[in-house]
Amino acid sequence: MHGAVKWGLGGAMLAGVLALAAFPAPIGLAMARLAIDARAGVDATQELPEGLHVALCGSGSPLPDPTRAGPCSMVIAGKHVFVVDAGEGGARNMTLMRIPNGHVEAVFLTHLHSDHIDGLGPMMLLRWTGANATVPLPIYGPAGTERVVAGINEAYAIDGGYRTAHHGPAVAPPSGRGGTAYPFALPPRGDGTPVTVLQRDGLTVTAFRVDHGPVDPAVGYRFDYKGRSIVFSGDTAPTPLLVRNARGADLLVHEGLQPRLVSLMEQTLRKRGQPGLAKIMSDIPGYHTSPEAAAAEAQEAGVKNLVFSHNVPQLPTRAMYPAYLGNARQKFDGTITVGEDGMVFSLPAGGKGMELRTWSVR
Asked: Is 65 designated active site?
């Protein structure tokens, strides 16, 4: 009997292989139909309860990581969709996560390092055509944002003309191409007083200074909606400015750099005769935050949940997470999650808990 079962399973597998070999085009077409039906035109945000949500469309860093796009987070407040930072690959991940790019109402930049803006061009393009937008995408950020947006607009100007000529002004209205910068003023360095950047349908977005020197200005953001709150650290060294503005937040999305792992990279690069790259690895821990330090700040601020994004160095396997976190869990009483692309954290309106789901980016 056991042999008959094995033969039956083997026969079924063999039949499947033979069918695929004999009819590759029809089977491939059927698979394509299934894949298209699962994603095309679907809006995954309809699955979410009323409340405040953050979806990680990029949890990586400037270091190449096959499992993570550059820094990019979506905030969904009710029916409104916003993006915090636009790293490379973020807009593509939004599509894979089944969130229509055309739904993005604004982008908030924490600072102007290349890895936080190098996906802004695709983000603006896909939002334009996805929404048939008649006005450019609003881009909020610190001083200098206007130069970045103007440069990307110019870089995409020729392409934009092609899109309108090909698809017509109803699909790609010339007036909606690109982005419009909305730089905001901040208090002097060292002053963490928050400034209100946007208010819409019960949502308040505030920005506050952090410490990423010599990068200045650099900011974090706080989103408050229907009694729930999410704070983004941006890139920063440990600073009381963050603790002050994260006070009592339901969720803190914090950058993380593990100095011990980065030191291993530095040592390896020096041994292999690459002193320039080794110097970079030596420099970067000073203006970032270790997971242990971030956990201590979250504890001091009374944060309920801590998620690490902008993870440095690369973490191609979860087996590396304990080495990355170090003793962070001993410093924070709440939940700690190492962020991965596709993770969605939900804070239902009027509630106290947090829900985690994952939308595929594959």
From this structure: no
